[in-house]
Amino acid sequence: MIVDLQPLVGAVFARKVGAEPVSEVGIRRYVEAHELESPLFHDRAQAREAGHNDIIAPWSMLLTMAMGAYWKPGDPTIEPGMWPPFAWGELSLPGGEMVTSEVGLEFFEPLQLGDIIHSEYRIARVTPKNTKVGSGDFIDFEINFTNQHGKTIAVERCTVYRYMPHGHGEDVANG
User: Fold this and answer.
1) Model pTM greater than 0.90?
2) 112, 56 in Cβ contact below 8 A?
3) CA-CA distance, 135 to 6, in Å (whole number)?
4) Is the predicted pLDDT of residue 86 greater than 80, yes or no?
5) Can you name the residues that pair with 56 across neighbouring β-strands?
6) What are the residue ranges of helices labelled H in 1-125?
7) Domains of the chain, each with CATH number or no CATH
């Protein structure tokens, strides 16, 4: 069974900062790759007419802009199959498998040029559960995304099931 995560409920367990500010080049490349045609992403006059100071980034670009750098000069070489620096890696979550069962995002402010995205990760609830696939915990996470001024851009709520598949607990524990 997964270790007791109840003491972590409500506490911030990770803080992350996006690798770079939202930029016109970044927006253009993202919009191009996703073929997004909204003039808010490329036409300054129309963006201002809609009440923005300048062009804005698509909502869907938030998680990209919230990601830290995968690698920087001086870091060791990234090994094949290595995961990016996800916040979950800062928790010691025993168990062999993890699956996301629910994700929801609530947006409050658009991503603007120059925004640097800061993320705070919390565990909102932990529910132990034995299922057909294994024994573990449903973990509800809440991630608050703010800009460099502390203004809330969005809140993500997601649920993951972290578990040990049936029949593997003893094998893993005895190693």
Assistant:
1) no
2) yes
3) 17
4) no
5) 112
6) 24-34, 44-49, 62-66
7) 6-68+92-174 (3.10.129.10)
